[in-house]
Structure formats: structure tokens, C-alpha cells
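Try this one yourself first.
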């Protein structure tokens, strides 16, 4: 079946850097802080940490195992591991769905990645200087209302990602993360230092780590699980594909813990870069998505060296976004290349072309097409434009479905000996604990969340 010999990561460390690059993205730096803000701080952080440990790490292990077991692209992995089972054609579909989901995510992610590039440019050229409150809102609205601006920067992010992908695993992905990840960590450390210097650290500690237990409810769990899935790049073919390039001698459980730890660490640290600035300036915490693109620019403008740090901040976001977009783009390319119809270069171009059209629709959905609400099968989606819809269906719905399917597949369908051997934990307590979680804990919880997703307002 396979026409092309798959490239591999050159080492466990190379994989780890790439997988952390995938996990650390807009989800950590842009989304995590505002979700924490909206959900009351410490209570959310606590539930989030629990979700990462209980479902997150076992699921990362599960998806890496499905990917590495036969060292083939995601759809083939599902097909080969269900060889001889009656349900094989269903599992092919599951593989297909896991490859489609990241493309749906990219349909909106590329647009936001474009915003970050645009902001780097805007600060660099002084367009965000000397603004007062309200004016940054205007700058943001102007961007949203300009199809040309949105499409220009979105196109740039598609081109950068496509270029990296077309060069392959070692010369493309590995090289990119080798450059971008160290810069990302350096900028993050600088920003936290800068924030600490300007005060507000004590309040941030208190806000993030003093849980108000009364604020914990089903909605917190729902939000935390969604956030953890997205942040850990679960419920899609990303981890399957990155796992398939992982050399056999590297320990999957160790890698999974490393990725989860680094991802969570960066999310928390991002809180420490942003919240102190918010507290010292007496700004509201629950400004939602506006936090980063509307609230922060006002403050950067007023702080000493704010312009420099503003540029660094949006560069950080851009780097984090690019190392994630490559991981969302790779699964489809890996599958196409395997079929032998396209070379990697052609496959990157075909996928990139399709994604450009999809992200283009997203960009237009905030201006020219803002009155177009493509589907209206229920109240929740009736008023949505294309960008919101893509996010809702792929990042909220399909990710949960794919995660549930991966857990059922490895827990209930694939022979036990396959995961036993691949995880290399021996047949002891650790392996049994992992298996228990993916057989009996993940399916009911994910199933419940999916029912809630379909039925909306269930909780
Ligand atoms: N984890 C990334 C973030 O936090 C986004 C991402 C990359 C992703 N690959 C994924 C999300 C696969 C879901 C599935 O921004």
C-alpha cells in the first residue's frame, strides 16, 4: 500500500520539540488566559489540571500509539490495526474524520494566525502608538472589516506553513521547530520578567491558584475538557501522524508526559505574562477574545518599552501559531503522499490551495459574507458565520468524537498485545491504569460531552 518510505524524526528530542510546538499554540497564549478570566480563575485552573492528568496524558499516549504501531499515516493506521475485524470499514471512516478535523480547524486558525502577523507589523510601523481605550477596538474592527487585510495576512500564514511542510520532516518541520521553539521560550521568559517588574504578581498568584470551589460546576468541566483537548492537539490526526514518525525505541509514555507538562506550563506562564499587566492597570478580566487584541495593545502603548514588548508578544503568538499550523496541515499531506499520486510538494500545494479557499471564506465571513449563515439546524448554530461554525463543529464537536473513537479503538477493538508492546510499560499497574482510563473513563465522559454538544443546553 505504501509507496513512499516515511521519513522519521531524527531523535526523541526532535519529536518532543515538534509535539510541544504543536501543543503550544494560540490555545495556550491567546485562549487559555481569557477562558481562565471568564471562568473565575483558580477554580478553572484546578479543574483544567485534573483533566490534563486524568484524560489528557492517557489520550496523548493512545493517539501516539495508534500512529506509531504500524508507522503509517492515520487512515492506514486505523485500517491496518482493525485488519480482520467486521468493523474495519467504520474505522477507515474514523481515520478519515481524524484527518478532516484539523483541516476544519485550520479554516479559522489560519485567519487568527494572520491577525498576529498583522499586529506585529502594525506595532512595528507605529500604527498602535498613542492610542486610548476604544481606539484599539477601532483598529481591531477595521482589520475585521477589511477583506484585503485579513486575506493578505492569512495568505502569508498559509504560505509559510505550506513552505515548511513541502520540505519534509527533517528539512522542514524539524528545522522550523528548532528555530522557532527556543525563540518562543526566550520571548516568554522575557515577557514574564517584564510583567513581574511592573507589579501585579501577587494578585495573579492569588487569582490563578486560589480556587473558589463554589464556582466549579459541569460547565467548568465542559470548558476545561474542550480547552485541554484543543491545547494538547487531541482528537485529530495530529498526534497520530507525529507518532508515526517517532522512532520505535523512544518511550511513548515519557513523551506524552513531556508534551502535557510543557503545554500546561506554557499555558500557566502565559497567564503570568498577561494577568499582572491587567491587574496593575485595573482592567476587567473577562473581556474574552478581546483580551489580547484589544486590551493588551492599549497597555503596551503606555508602558515603558511597551512597543518593544508588544512586538515581542505578538511575535510569540505568531511563532506559537505556526508550529501548530504545521501539525494541523501535515496529516492530510502525509496521507496524500502515501497514496503515491502526489509528491510531497504537490500534495502540500493541493492541500494549501484548499485550505486557502476555506480560510478565505472565514475571513470574508466577518465582513462581506457576515449575513450569510450557512446552516441553521439548531438555535446554537443558526446565527453563526462560517468562521464561528468551523470552530464550533471542528474544535468543539469533531475533536471530541475523534478522541472518543481513538479511545474505543485502542481500548476495545485493537488486540491488547499491540498497545501492551508499543507502550513498553510492561503488564503492570501503570499499563492497567492507562487501559482502565481509556476503556471505562474516557468513553462515558466524552460521550456525555458529545450528547451535550448535540443537544446543547443539556447542562
Ligand atoms: N494545540 C494547538 C493550540 O493550542 C492547536 C492544535 C494543533 C490543535 N494541532 C491540533 C488542536 C490538533 C486540535 C487538534 O493552539
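Now uncover the answer:
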Amino acid at each position: 500500500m505504501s509507496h513512499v518510505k516515511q521519513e522519521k524524526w531524527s531523535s526523541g528530542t526532535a519529536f518532543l520539540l515538534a509535539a510541544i510546538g504543536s501543543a503550544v499554540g494560540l490555545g495556550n497564549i491567546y485562549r487559555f488566559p481569557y477562558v481562565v478570566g471568564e471562568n473565575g480563575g483558580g477554580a478553572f485552573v484546578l479543574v483544567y489540571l485534573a483533566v490534563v492528568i486524568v484524560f489528557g496524558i492517557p489520550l496523548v499516549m493512545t493517539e501516539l500509539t495508534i500512529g506509531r504501531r504500524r508507522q503509517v499515516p492515520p487512515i492506514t493506521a486505523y485500517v491496518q490495526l482493525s485488519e480482520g475485524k467486521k468493523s474495519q470499514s467504520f474505522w477507515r471512516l474514523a481515520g478519515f474524520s481524524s484527518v478532516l478535523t484539523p483541516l476544519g480547524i485550520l479554516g479559522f486558525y489560519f485567519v487568527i494566525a494572520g491577525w498576529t502577523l498583522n499586529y506585529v507589523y502594525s506595532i512595528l510601523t507605529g500604527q498602535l502608538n498613542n492610542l486610548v481605550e476604544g481606539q484599539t477596538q477601532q483598529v481591531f474592527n477595521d482589520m475585521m472589516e477589511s477583506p484585503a487585510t485579513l486575506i493578505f495576512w492569512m495568505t502569508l500564514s498559509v504560505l509559510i506553513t505550506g513552505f515548511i511542510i513541502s520540505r519534509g520532516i527533517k528539512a522542514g518541520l524539524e528545522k522550523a521547530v528548532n528555530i522557532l521553539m527556543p525563540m518562543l521560550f526566550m520571548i516568554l521568559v522575557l515577557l514574564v520578567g517584564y510583567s513581574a517588574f511592573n507589579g501585579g504578581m501577587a494578585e495573579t498568584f492569588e487569582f490563578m491558584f486560589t480556587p473558589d470551589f463554589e464556582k466549579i460546576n459541569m460547565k467548568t468541566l465542559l470548558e476545561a475538557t474542550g480547552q485541554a483537548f484543543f491545547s494538547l492537539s487531541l482528537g485529530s490526526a495530529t498526534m497520530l501522524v507525529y507518532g508515526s514518525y517517532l522512532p520505535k525505541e523512544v518511550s511513548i509514555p515519557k513523551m506524552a508526559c513531556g508534551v502535557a507538562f510543557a503545554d500546561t506550563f506554557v499555558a500557566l506562564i502565559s497567564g503570568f505574562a498577561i494577568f499582572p499587566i491587567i491587574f496593575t492597570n485595573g482592567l476587567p478580566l473577562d473581556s474574552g477574545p478581546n483580551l489580547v487584541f484589544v486590551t493588551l495593545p492599549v497597555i503596551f502603548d503606555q508602558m515603558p518599552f511597551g512597543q518593544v514588548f508588544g512586538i515581542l508578544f505578538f511575535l510569540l503568538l505568531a511563532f506559537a501559531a505556526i508550529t501548530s499550523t504545521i501539525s494541523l496541515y501535515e496529516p492530510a499531506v502525509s496521507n496524500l503522499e502515501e497514496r503515491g499520486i502526489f509528491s510531497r510538494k504537490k500534495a502540500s500545494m493541493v492541500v494549501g490551495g484548499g485550505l486557502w479557499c476555506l480560510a478565505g471564506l472565514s475571513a470574508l465571513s466577518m465582513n462581506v459574507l457576515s449575513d450569510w449563515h450557512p446552516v441553521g439546524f439548531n438555535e446554537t448554530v443558526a446565527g453563526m458565520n462560517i468562521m464561528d461554525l468551523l470552530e464550533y463543529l471542528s474544535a468543539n464537536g469533531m475533536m471530541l468524537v475523534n478522541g472518543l473513537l481513538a479511545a474505543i479503538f485502542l481500548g476495545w477493538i485493537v488486540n491488547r498485545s499491540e498497545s501492551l508492546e508499543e507502550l513498553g510499560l510492561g503488564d503492570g499497574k501503570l499499563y492497567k491504569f492507562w487501559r482502565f482510563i481509556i476503556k471505562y473513563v474516557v468513553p462515558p465522559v466524552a460521550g456525555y460531552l458529545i450528547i451535550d454538544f448535540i443537544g446543547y443546553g443539556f447542562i
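Discussion: The chain has a mean pLDDT of 92. Residues 88-124 form the longest helix (37 residues).
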